[in-house]
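Protein Record: Sequence and Backbone Structure Tokens
======================================================

Structure line: whole-number tokens from a learned vocabulary of local backbone shapes, matched to residues.

Purpose: to set a sequence beside its fold so the mapping can be learned.

___
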Amino acid sequence: MSERGRIPSESHNSATILVVDDAADTRLMLSLRLQREGYVVWAAGSGQEAIDIVKKEGLPDLAVLDIMMPGMDGLSPLADELRQAGEIPIIFLSALSDTNTKVEGLNRYAEDYVTKPFAFSELLARIRRVLMRVAPERSLEPELAIDDRLRVNFAQQYAVMDNRQIPLTPTENRILNILYHNRGRVLSPGFLLSKVWDPTRRGTVESLWVHVRRLRSKIEPDPDNPRYVLTVRGQGYCLPQRNQIDREGVLIQDSAKSEKIAHAL
């Protein structure tokens, strides 16, 4: 089980920190103390649990990873998985103090490396330093307007609908990103599957359908009658240009041809 919780803070921009450690006492201590500092904490006891949290909740602002964990250690497999999901700053925690491990971690993945046992005040200072460094970069990332009601920030993986911020999972974000950068074109399920999923973990048409439905539930005013992620019967999916939908809900693909939208898959 993950100890996920939110402590009210004066700031509405509290950073979210993913803590991954198989030691329950360390995980609980970090969760409670970071929450007291005003951070939102997602805690996981294994690498797989951490990946599941990121798939469900979206990207954290920073990850604190224990290196020595059974099943999937933090240094390579887990860090690789998180980096595939997006640009997540990482701080490693480890009882391993040899120089080679530190150098590998810092060169390949991490912003910082803290050796166990550690003082919480030191870790907190390092967390604040990393978050301060990445904050200016993220503040420059633009929100792209789909229309007057919907904006998307693909780098930070969220949508804004009617001025309400909505987190997107990495898969939802990739689907919408590909549709946005091919706006007005109908993309086949096969094309989307090849772009959205890792080649070593092939998705299926059914899994694509599930993620599209979830995406619609987040960004569509009426998910059963979508206006953004449209299904073109027998062809695929489309994010239409503003002038591509006529008054009868017909997607205008060119001047001579239009396709009816199949609103429900």
The CA atoms of residues 48 and 72 lie 7 Å apart. Residues 120-139 form the longest helix (20 residues). Residues 144-260 form a domain with the Arc Repressor Mutant, subunit A fold (CATH 1.10.10.10). The chain has two domains: 16-139, 144-260.
